[in-house]
């Protein structure tokens, strides 16, 4: 196994992200359109939160959109702001930190995605799925 490779090697750079003022309806649409489970929330490119699909489903009594992302029923989502639902005080990892550092964070914490930053600006995201794919490639 290669030693000390940077997390930037395995992170997703083509990011789906939300701005702090975006709606929960927009968030659900992005989750379904891109088939993802975590979206960083930014304010001027600085990470201020993380929204998981699970967070969104916790406040929803029923799936608010069909599989095509149409026929949105926003009543439940209109009761909350993105800031109320997202995780605050998100742990981030530097783009030049090594993959092992990211793996250690995942083993100690109860989350599955880390925003990757360079000089406080969001440049990527690394997930436990990225980590597993990287490990599989090593064998």
Secondary structure blueprint with pairings:
Blueprint: E1 18-19, H1 24-34, E2 38-43, E3 46-52, H2 53-59, H3 82-85, E4 93-94, H4 99-108, E5 113-118, E6 121-127, H5 128-138
Parallel strand pairs: 1-2, 4-5
Antiparallel strand pairs: 2-3, 5-6
CA-atom Rg in angstroms? 16 Å
Low-pLDDT regions: none
State the secondary-structure class.
alpha/beta
- Quote the distance from N terminus to C terminus: 8 Å
How many structural units, i.e. domains? Answer: 1
CATH evolutionary superfamily:
CBS-domain
User: How many β-strands, per DSSP?
Assistant: 6
Main-sheet strand order equals 1-2-3
Total number of helices: 5
Instruction: Write down the secondary-structure element order.
Output: EHEEHHEHEEH
Structural features:
139 residues; alpha/beta; CBS-domain; three-stranded mixed β-sheet; 31% helix; globular; Diverse_CBS-Domain; CBS_dom_sf; CBS_dom; CBS domain-containing protein; CBS domain
Overview of this protein structure:
The chain is globular, with a radius of gyration of 16 Å. The model has no long low-confidence stretch (mean pLDDT 88). It has a three-stranded mixed β-sheet with strand order 1-2-3. The protein has a three-stranded mixed β-sheet with strand order 4-5-6. The chain is α/β, with parallel strands linked by helices and 139 residues long. Helix 4 (99-108) links the parallel strand 4 (93-94) and strand 5 (113-118). It contains five helices and six strands, in the order E-H-E-E-H-H-E-H-E-E-H. The chain starts with 17 loop residues before the first strand and ends with a helix. It has a single domain (7-138), classed as CBS-domain (Roll), CATH 3.10.580.10.
């Amino acid at each position: 196994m290669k030693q000390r490779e940077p997390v930037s090697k395995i992170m997703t750079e083509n990011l789906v992200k939300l701005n702090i003022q975006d709606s929960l309806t927009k968030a659900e649409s992005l989750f379904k359109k891109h088939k993802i489970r975590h979206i960083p929330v930014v304010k001027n490119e600085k990470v201020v939160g993380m929204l998981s699909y699970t967070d969104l489903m916790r406040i929803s009594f029923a799936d608010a959109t069909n599989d095509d992302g149409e026929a949105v029923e926003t009543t439940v989502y209109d009761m909350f702001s993105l800031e109320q639902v997202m995780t605050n005080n998100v742990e981030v990892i530097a783009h030049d930190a090594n993959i092992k550092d990211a793996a250690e964070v995942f083993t100690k914490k109860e989350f599955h995605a880390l925003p990757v930053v360079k000089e406080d600006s969001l440049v990527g995201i690394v997930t436990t799925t990225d980590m597993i794919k990287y490990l599989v490639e090593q064998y």
